[in-house]
Design a protein that fits this description.
Blueprint: H1 2-19, H2 25-39, H3 49-80
Helix pairs in contact: 1-3, 2-3
Length: 81
């Protein structure tokens, strides 16, 4: 449970750092470049870096929460059946 809360706190702090421009665009773009090259998609333009980073953070939170919800749902079915 602590890990789930810590994950959300870290993701929200990184998102706030991006929105408030505390984190430099160059560093964010550098990290996004690695991610996009690993997946095999084009890297964002420098003016799109902050928006794309926020989309990645939101998508990651949704995927993790969806997996956790599915895990809880499946385990609750096995207990009742």
């Amino acid at each position: 449970m602590v890990g789930i809360v810590a994950f959300h706190v870290v993701m929200l702090l990184v998102g706030l750092g991006i929105v408030s421009r505390i984190l430099p665009s160059g560093r964010i773009g550098y990290m996004l470049g690695y991610l996009h090259k690993a997946i095999g998609i084009t890297t964002p333009f420098p003016e799109q870096v902050r928006t794309v980073a926020l989309i990645w953070i939101g998508s990651t939170i949704i995927v993790v929460d969806g997996c956790l919800l599915l895990l809880v749902f499946i385990t609750s079915l096995s207990k009742s059946g």
